[in-house]
Specification:
Layout lengths: L2 E5 L13 H4 L8 H13 L4 E6 L5 E10 L12 H14 L5 E9 L8 H15 L4 E6 L12 H4 L12 H8 L3 E14 L1 H8 L7 E3 L8 E4 L4 E12 L5
Parallel strand pairs: 4-5
Antiparallel strand pairs: 1-2, 2-3, 3-4, 5-9, 6-9, 7-8, 8-9
Helix pairs in contact: 2-3
């Protein structure tokens, strides 16, 4: 499929033409605490860092990427504490006029109708191209491991080390990053915070939580801790930092 990369700064109308969030992400992922505050500003204040892949013939948006620049000195120990922290850093850096040198990837969204056509890889390549256009030295990504939901009780610190018999990473999304030159930098056990009432969590997951405790739930990468007395469910989504090669 021939396509072209277009930023929202170049075509603001594309912001409303990408894949719908509720067909790309599990319901619970649409209710993250920090993202509720900072995702809108990311899209509105940094349109030059959001882009779409458009079908060359029809002009239809088949995939889109969300990114933003921050400052990072290349030391893994000083990577942001997670995707929540990174998102906050990107928006505040823009507002404060601080110097930046690293592009952070936040989301790669592909229309389900055209999955399995290599568009995720094209989005990653587009991110690297965008970083070069903007004069940034690095591309980093707080990756949401796509198969972690199969192993919600496994610690993310162990999961990110698992490899197949051929030596490649077990997780497909991490494996794609690695195939494009990235390395596993740091596991993030508390990357994205999502809290809600017990009723909200039951609605988001389709489950009933009859008593307080830790529960596995559909598409969850870890457990949700339910406190019925406090009427709150608390979930920390784990991610992993993948660091791509420096951009010449």
């Amino acid at each position: 499929m021939p396509f072209r990369m277009v930023t929202w700064a170049e075509r603001p109308d594309l912001a409303d033409q990408g894949p719908a969030s509720d067909v790309v992400w599990p319901e619970y992922n649409l209710h993250a605490d920090v993202f509720d505050d900072w995702w809108g500003p990311l899209e509105e204040e940094l349109p030059e860092f959001q882009f779409a892949l458009c079908d060359e013939e029809s002009g239809v948006v088949v995939a889109e990427a969300h990114t933003g620049p921050l400052a990072w000195d290349g030391d893994d120990a000083r990577l942001p504490g997670g995707i929540d922290d990174a998102l906050r850093q990107v928006v505040t850096a823009r507002r404060d006029g601080r110097e930046v040198d690293t592009l952070c990837a936040f989301a790669a969204e592909v229309d389900p109708a055209v999955r399995q056509q290599g568009l995720s890889g094209e989005l990653l390549k587009g991110m690297r191209e965008l970083a070069g256009r903007q004069g940034l030295r690095r591309l980093i990504a707080p990756v949401r491991p796509s198969w972690k939901e199969r192993y919600p009780l496994a610690a993310i610190e162990r999961y990110v080390t698992w490899r197949r018999d051929d030596g490649r990473l077990l997780d497909p999304w991490m494996r794609l990053h690695e195939r494009l030159g990235a390395r596993v930098a740091a596991p993030l056990p508390e990357s994205m915070l999502i809290t809600g009432s017990v009723a909200e969590w039951e609605q988001w997951t389709g489950l009933t939580f009859p008593e307080s405790g830790a529960y596995v739930f559909p598409h969850g990468l870890a457990t949700v801790d339910v406190d019925r007395d406090g009427d709150v469910g608390t979930y920390w989504e784990p991610n992993v930092w993948m660091v791509h090669p420096e951009i010449a």
